[in-house]
Design a protein that fits this description.
By secondary structure, the chain is α+β, with helices and mostly antiparallel strands. About 55% of the residues lie in helices and about 20% in strands. The chain folds into 3 domains: about 80 residues, Helix Hairpins (Orthogonal Bundle), CATH 1.10.287; about 60 residues, SH3 type barrels, CATH 2.30.30; about 80 residues, 2-Layer Sandwich (Alpha-Beta Plaits), CATH 3.30.70. It has 10 helices and 8 strands.
Amino acid sequence: MEELLKQLLQTLFEIAKTIGLRLVFALLLLFIGLKLARTVSKKIKNGKGMQRIDKNVASFLNSLIKISLYAAVLIGCLLILGVPAASFVTAIASCGLAIGLALQGSLSNFAGGIMLLIFKPFQIGDFIEGAGYSGTVEDITILYTHIITPDNLKVSLPNGKLSDDAVINYTALGKRRADITVSVPYECDLRIVRAILLQVAKENPYRLKDDPITVEIIDYAESGIKMCVRYYANNDVFWTAVFKTRQDILDIFKENGISIPYNRIDVSTVQSSKNNEQ
């Protein structure tokens, strides 16, 4: 009985020693492998090969390579721990349906990312509007497109949604048309107003000189006539041009005694007959 107990303890010791060594090697591989994966992906990202290809494709490939390296490290750790490769592949195959259902959103985003790279509705650095948000494209990964909004917020948009929804690219054509609408009273001289708006647009230094300027009546509102001045400006100075035009219109209107109408509410009070008698 004593000999049997010794053999049992010896067997348990050998198993513990073997598992312990495997665990140590697996942890070492995990620690070193993850650091190595980060280093390799960073070198690939900053390498000359990535610099030569399209920046959208480079961003997508770098994200894919990074995730693949991480997956390889984790699979290596499982193999060191004694998980048979055949059993590992069989388990993945048997759980494929469940994994596919659980990750259908991610798979849709992955497919959407490929579609974005193929059709290229936008590039990194473009100002876009899509999925309910607008901002400058910072990065395109395998699952998400990251944008920076005008108020400096970082938003991650699913690639699947971007590839399915309408996307407005404000940067693609290099210039935008500015539409500045202003209301004027019905009794004012529209010829003077038209001349003022045309003058303000012509004197705007950010306007593209080779493109036409139009000043037209666009609506007859309750409070006044709505007029719109239109011209083109480059993307990088578009909002500067718009803000200057609005300020210049306000200043010149004041100088010429032209008021901008607005809705007013007149409130009248009626005294009761009892109060009148008193």
